Amino acid sequence: MVSDPSEAAIDQIVASCNGDLRGALKALLLVNEHLEAELQQLYAAAAQDSVARGKFLH
Question: How far apart are CA 4 and CA 46, in angstroms?
Fold first, then answer.
C-alpha cells in the first residue's frame, strides 16, 4: 500500500500512460510548459496593470 501522496500521484500518472515512464515524463513536461506559459501571462498582466497604476514590481 502506498502511503505517500506523491508516490500515489506518480503511480497514477504512470498508470494513465499505460506504464510508459517516458510517456509519463513527456506528459508532465508538457503540462509544466503550459503552466509556465500561463504564469508568464499572469506576470505580464500584473506588470502592465502596475505600470498603468503608476506602480512597479521589483
Answer: 36
Residue 57 is predicted with a pLDDT of 56
Please list, in sequence order, all residues whose beta carbon lies within 8 angstroms of the beta carbon of residue 16, skipping any fewer than 6 positions away: 24, 27
Q: What percent of the chain has pLDDT over 70?
A: 90
- Distance of alpha carbon 1 from its chain centroid, rounded? 27
pTM listed for this prediction: 0.69
> DSSP letters of 1-58?
----HHHHHHHHHHHHTTT-HHHHHHHHHHHHHHHHHHHHHHHHHHHHHHHHTT----
